[in-house]
Each structure stands twice: as C-alpha cells, then as structure tokens.
C-alpha cells in the first residue's frame, strides 16, 4: 500500500447472510476512520385519488427509488462529525439546503443544513398509512424554518432537549422583515410512555407557511390554511405502548395575524389555529394495522365576520413485513374540508397498495 | 458492534486482481442481505457531424462519466427485490420517471419506473457503431410509453414473454384523451438463433412519439416522422450467430391517423409506417467490426395527395477491446432524408473515435 | 458465486481504526480491477459579509455536504483509465461539462470534461483563508476555457508540462466567432522551491470571462473587470518553503481589446491587465496561519480617455487540525475596488468561522 490506500477484502466465501449492515470505508491518508455509508429505499405500487372539487378519480402506477449517503468521522479529541444527504438532493446539499452536516460530543449534537425544526424533531408525528403515505394526512403542521438552519439536541438519560433556528438574515417576507424562525422542545420517556412539548416562534409569513397559504385551497395539503399567518405555536405529544398496541397523540395551538391571502394587506386581525392528531397501531407478528384521526381549525375575524376553515381527516392502513427489508403496505385516507361561512367545501380520498423496500 | 453495524474488512493484502466484481453491503438492523452495488461507465473522444441542411461541419471533444446504483434484497419467502438508477437520474428516480424498482420470483419479474416497453426490451435493436452511437441511426422507433410504467417478464427455458403498460390515467394528449400505451412481446432461442415479436398499441399522439413529430425535421432523429400518428405497431426480430459473425434484423409495421403536425386538426387520414434494420458484426480476437443498414418510410394521404417521407441510414464501425473494461471504438453513420412530394431533402453524416470505459 | 460476482467480506472484528482509506471494488465479469471509490467533504459554520455599496451586513449559517465518485481501471496493456465527478454534478458529468474522464500511461495523461486549464492546473493559486474561502479573493483570474475541454499533462522528474484546449467549434461569441481557448504551462521543482509559468490564448470574449464582465460590478468576484476583453495572458508562479513557512507568489499579465460592456460595439482599443497575488502560511503543529495580498488592474483607452479599474485585496486566517479529517477554520478577507476616473468605488469584507470535514 505505498500510496496509503487500503482495499476491501474480497474472499471467495461471498455474502455473509447474517450481516446486519456494512460500512464503506473511504478516506484520505491521515484520517483514522472517516467513512461513507450507502443505503437506499424504494417502493412500487398503485395509487388512487378522488377529489370532489374536480370530480376526478385517478389511478396511477407509483414507484420511487432513492440512495442515501452518510459520511462520518471522529476527531482526535473524540468528537464525532458527519454529513448525510440523498443522491437526488446532492445539488441542494452542496448549497446547504438539503441534507445535514453535524458535530456531536459530550455537549450534545449540533447540525446544520436542512434540519427538521426542534419541534418537529422532538414531538414528531402520529403514525400514517399506506406505502406512499396517502398525502400524509396524519401529520400536523409545524411552523417550520428556512434553511440553512441549525439544530441543537442534547440527551440526558430519558430526557432529550432540542433548540433550532432558521437561516439568519434570510430573505425578507411579505412585510419586508427577514424571515426568521426558532423553536425549543423537550421529550421525556417514562417506561412505556413518552411525552414531548415544543414552542415555535416565527416572523410573520415565514416562507414555509406561505407555501400552503390559500384558505380556499383545493389540495388537501393546504387545508390547515392561513397557517401562514400563525407566528407562534405550542405543540404537545404523548406516546404510549400497551403490549402490541402503540397509541400516539399530538395537539398544537397557534396564533398569529391574518393576511387573507393578500401579502401586502395585513388586516391585523388575530388568527388562532388548533390541531389534533391521534393514531393507534396494533402489531400481530409480521402484520401491523394503523388507524389515525386528525382535525385542524383556523379561525379569524374577516372585516367584522367570524371566518376560518377546518379539516377533518382519518386513515386506516395495514403493513405486512415480508422480511429482508421488504413490506407490503396498503392504506386509505380521507380529508373533508369545511370553509366556515363559505360554500367551498370539498373532500379528497386517497388509497394505495404496494411494496416498500429498504436496502 | 453494539449498534448492530458491521464493517468491511480491510486486510493488508490490498486489491485482489482476480476479482470480477464486488458488492457494497449496506442495510439496517434486521435485513438479511440488502445491498447497494455501485458501478460506472465513461467515455472520451472526438466527434464530427456534418449536415447538408445547415452546411455545418462541427468537430467536438466528447466525454461522459456515469455512476449507477443497483440495490437488491430478498424477502424471507425468497422473493428478490431491487432498484436501479443512475446518479445523474437520482431526481427523476425519486419521482418514478427514471430508474426502476422491481420484484421477482417464480412468477416472473415485475418492474416499475422508467422501463423500456415489452416490445423494446424483448425485440431490441440491431448493432450500432462508434463510441457515442453516432446518433443511434441503427435503431428502429418503438411507440414507447409514458412513465411511471410497469413491465412484466417471464422466462421458461428458451422462451421469454413480456408485457408492459404506460402510466395509467396519465396526462391527456392532443385530443384530450389520456395517453396510454401497452405492448406484449415474446422471444425464443433456438441454438444459435433468436426470434422475437412484439405488438404495441397506443393512444393517438402518445407523448413519446410526438417528441419526434415534425415531418420536416432537420434532426436525423426526427426522420421517421409522423410516427406520432402511429397508434399500433408490430415488430419482428431475428438474430443469428455463425461462428464469429452475428447477424441481426428487425422489421416494424405500424399504422395510425395523420395529424399534419397540427395537434387540433386531425385529418383522419390513415398513416402507415414501415421500418427495417439489419446489422452484421464480425469478431476477430479483440477486434470487432460492425456494419448496419436501416430504412424507414411513412406514407399518408394529405388532402387527396399521397404524402410521406423516408429515411435511409447506414453505418460502419470497429471496436477494439483493450481489456480491463476499456475499448477503443470508432464509427461513421449517415442518414439521407427524402420528403416525398417535397424538396426538403437533406442528409447528415456523423463520425466519432474514442474510448469507452466500464467500471 | 455462479454469476461471477464476489462480495465484500464482513468479519466480526469491525472497523480497523488504522485504516487510511478504502476502495469500493465494483465491475463486471472480465474486468481485472475496475473500481469506484467514494469520498466526501462537508463544512458548517457562520459567515458574515459587509459591502459598502448596499451598506448591507449579513450574517448567515453556512453548511455544505458533498460526495465524490472516482472510478478507475487498467487495460491489459497497462494504461490507467478513470473518471471522477461529484454527486451534485452527476447531470453535467453525463453531458461532459462536469467531472473528468482520463487515460494515462508512459505518454503522460490526457483528460476530458470539466478540466482546469493547463495554466490553472500548473500555476495554481496562492493560499486562501477561511472555511468557505471568503470569496476566494486570493485567486487570480485565468482566461479559462469552455467545456468539454481537453488537458494533457506529462511529468519528467521535477518537471511537469501541460497543455489544454477548450471545446472545439463551441458556441459562438459576441462577434460570431467560435469561442476557443488554449493554454500551455510548465512547472519545475528545485528542492524547496517550485516555479511555474503559463501562457493562455483565447478568442475575444471567451464565455468564461464575460461571466465577470461588468467594469462597475458590485460583486467582489467581478473586480478584475473587462477581463472578458483579455485574449491572452502570461502567468508566473513561485512557491518557496522555509521550514514551517510557505510563501507563494503569482503574477499575471494580459492584453486584449475593450468592449465597454456592449457586445456589439467593440471599440478596438487595447486593454491591458495585470494581477499580483502573494501568500504566507506558517504552521505550528496543528495550527496554521495564512495571510495573503492581491492586486489587479485593468487599463484601457475609452474614447480618448484613460480608463480602467483596480482592486486591492487582502486576507488573514487560521486553520486548526482537529484530526480525523476535521479542521476548525476562520478567516477574514477584504476587497477595495477603485474605478479609475469614476466614483464607483466600493469595498467588501467577508468573515467566516467554521469546521471542515473530509471523509
């Protein structure tokens, strides 16, 4: 090895079936243990979507394949460092808006890039259904943050705390202020229970909200509308395991100022938003079944009139573990959107059935 | 290995020169044998193109480098699953329009994503020339299909059958109908012979045809024009090996309805298209030489006048195997385009010389 | 291994901490030793930029993660071939405008793709500062070349020579000529000294110059403005190592024809450009400190008036090696732009502090 490079052994015995995972070691002369790990995931199946607004019923083939790079190393002083991003996000990872770069040690872990906020990381979501997620209607909306963001986490036994901050001096928002968001969160495990809480605070119209801003949206993902107007939110979570049954619940309460969809016409009226989501997953050997329910409501005063909208969602699904990283999964989810004082109600139903693979 | 991860051995012996291929094992705790394999290809050389339409003679450096990910695993029940895509297609692979995801077992193999159609997969093309392909003028045009598509293949000894279907409920075409395409195909090996046949059927103006729609195209790839009007095609193939000589032939006969290039003015006239391609490749040790010839003709009635166009193509090339995955390759191909009842004739000549590498 | 594939050994001993680097072997039956190596880099930290033009002071999180593929093989005749590109450049690597493909042997090495020119490859730059480079103000501007380019290098003991050429018959430039650039260069090592020289020659307005064309640019990178008008440049470099101290110096002298920013109004006046850059880096164990200074001046006759602009840049920085591929780095750089006969002067200051990781 005159050039300082070492090469992977390749014995004739072939693949060791008992392996759980393998790491690809790479590096440069002088590095003790830097490495890049490659993993992947894929899925294939059929999806169906029906929405009442367009009276459209659409069935499609659906497939997806991904590869993830995870690089890690250790300083002489024992700090761990690493980076992780998906191949399809390599361009954004290069500019700091996808994947993450991290440093961790006794002080905890700090990560930069496309982090989930402290709130989302810590509280998380209740269980979803289907091989595609069927619109992820189980999810509550967090305020989010602009990338490049920073996330700090620290674990002391059963307690984990986290704090995050979106990009400093980011692009300005509707009203000319820099978009800025921050959150703090904590979770605590008590035997079979896990409790979590988070506070998020953002500037008016943080970008990640305005993506989904239209109160009269016809896309289910836009249902918790006017949430772009929410500038603070408190989220609570509780998970409980009773033998084969796992229950999860989330509640979020937010407040802010309404814009009525017109960026340059803030009306100053207070907006309030509440979200609830619960799920139950029961596992029998290789089979697990999941059901979830969720509700979101936004209320505000629209030139003297009580206004707002609410969505009610539920879903049921099953997953069967085929072993080796493969699962068969099917799910159905439904969303009903009710615009208060308005006839813009609609509903959307999604179904899927397919296979998911982890490599 | 407290975290369930195992690491690649790195003996001091270095690289084993007798290795044929190596697999990178990755995965997650609980997977028996999921793995991601990395391979690559590259090429470098000089190309020259001359077309009479622009009287343009252009010489250029040409290089290309690719990496491919191939992930695979096996369920407890013995089914194989996998995914494959190129690094440069990672984004499309994530949305199901590049690469493929597959499941295979005793029932055959089903694949979703950016499949070749059953017709193309089974019948295939005659041999081409050059390190770049020189415009792939050896290829006949198949009707194609929109992705995410599904492909099923099954092999019984010397017989292979295949069926494929383009995306269900895809985007609508010119006339407002959903684009839809399907094909069935079979191949049979008899000693040194291989015979194949395929039937394709598509909606009017399936997108993959209209890419090459213009009857008066100046790009050689557009020569088999008005093939966007072809809605069904039958393709036959025969391969024969006589010692060092391999002969291949393909015939395709299609029919459809002409549009005259105006999407909203179908004239209802019947279009017929015929294609023929033949190749001969002779191998002497490391050297192989290839020649091909091809012809395509589209005919239709244009407001009472017989109309159409035809192309005649040929090519010659040589490839020298340098060992280790490297080849030196050079080729020349020429296309003559003859627009019936029109003076829009032109021809195009492409030459290249370079190296191809497989990793 | 009936399919000719060999698999990586995965012993129970886990990761060997003394490893310096590892190679992922891949390939196809029949290849002796083709392989793809994966490596990566990442960085995270804080940046600050202040420019007088906008009186804007901006502080931001900054992170980046990259993965690189390096493929290599060897022909039966002992020639080495390879390809290299970053995951985020996979698309451009597929079209020959990112990464490189190369062949090397006793004749030297020839590379195609997104090469640095012979001048840049051979002379290189003086040392920069900071974990992000802080605008790379240490760098002198080379004329550059359009890709797909070709680069030839040959080393005889202490002497290295190089020649490069941009894409042949590339896109046309402002005046309708094909953009074309070429350079030749040589470097010679004499004990602790290294000397280098390069000559570049390009068509008028080679694209890589016009990117930075505006004489009144407010971006520091545009300071050596009107360099789009430079069509030839001679560059000299000298490096010297005195124990822990490394000194580097670069001088470039260019000439061309001024365009005044209007592509279709060449005024025919001669432009001259001079650049100087020097750096000193002193290393004490894990710590190294760097300072650089640079100056660039462009002068031309603007309708009878002496015109031009100059920039003065300097920077200071420190880097601390944390081991394992990690470094802590901080830097400050400043640019002052002086437009001769004009009041468009401005300055820009950049600072950063962060960590860099190599995997």
From TrEMBL, chains A, B, C:
<dbReference type="Pfam" id="PF13609">
    <property type="entry name" value="Porin_4"/>
</dbReference>
<protein>
    <submittedName>
        <fullName>Porin</fullName>
    </submittedName>
</protein>
<dbReference type="InterPro" id="IPR033900">
    <property type="entry name" value="Gram_neg_porin_domain"/>
</dbReference>
<dbReference type="InterPro" id="IPR023614">
    <property type="entry name" value="Porin_dom_sf"/>
</dbReference>
<feature type="domain" description="Porin">
    <location>
        <begin position="21"/>
        <end position="337"/>
    </location>
</feature>
<dbReference type="GO" id="GO:0016020">
    <property type="term" value="C:membrane"/>
</dbReference>
<dbReference type="GO" id="GO:0015288">
    <property type="term" value="F:porin activity"/>
</dbReference>
């Amino acid at each position: 090895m005159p050039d300082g490079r070492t090469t992977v052994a390749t014995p004739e015995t072939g693949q060791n079936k008992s392996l759980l995972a393998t790491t690809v070691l790479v590096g440069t002369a002088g590095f003790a243990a830097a490495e890049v790990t490659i993993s992947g995931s894929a899925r294939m199946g059929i999806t169906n979507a029906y929405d009442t607004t367009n009276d459209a019923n659409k069935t499609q083939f659906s497939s997806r394949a991904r590869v993830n790079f995870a690089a890690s190393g250790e300083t002489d002083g024992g700090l761990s460092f690493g980076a992780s991003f998906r191949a399809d996000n390599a361009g954004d990872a290069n500019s700091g808006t996808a994947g993450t770069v991290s440093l961790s040690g006794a002080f905890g872990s700090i990560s930069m890039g496309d982090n989930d906020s402290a709130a989302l990381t810590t509280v998380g979501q209740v269980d979803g259904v289907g091989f595609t997620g069927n619109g992820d209607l189980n999810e509550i909306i967090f305020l989010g943050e602009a990338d490049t963001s920073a996330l700090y986490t620290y674990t002391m036994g059963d307690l984990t705390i986290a704090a995050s901050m979106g990009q400093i001096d980011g692009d300005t928002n509707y009203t000319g202020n820099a978009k800025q968001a921050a959150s703090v969160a904590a979770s605590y495990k008590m035997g079979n229970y896990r409790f979590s809480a988070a506070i998020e605070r953002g500037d008016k119209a943080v970008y990640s909200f305005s993506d989904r801003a239209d109160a009269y949206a016809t896309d289910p993902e836009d249902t918790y509308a006017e949430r772009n107007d929410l500038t603070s939110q408190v989220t609570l979570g509780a998970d409980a395991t009773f033998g084969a049954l796992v229950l999860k619940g989330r509640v979020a309460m937010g407040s802010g100022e309404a814009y009525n969809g017109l960026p340059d016409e803030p009306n100053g009226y207070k907006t309030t938003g509440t979200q609830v989501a619960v799920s139950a997953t029961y596992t029998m050997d290789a089979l697990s079944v999941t059901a979830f329910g969720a509700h979101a409501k936004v209320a505000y005063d629209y030139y003297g009139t009580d206004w707002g909208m609410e969505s009610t969602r539920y879903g049921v699904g099953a997953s069967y573990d085929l072993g080796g990283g493969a699962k068969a999964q099917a799910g159905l989810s439904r969303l009903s959107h009710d615009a208060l004082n308005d006839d813009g109600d609609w509903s959307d139903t999604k179904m899927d059935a397919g296979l998911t693979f982890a490599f």
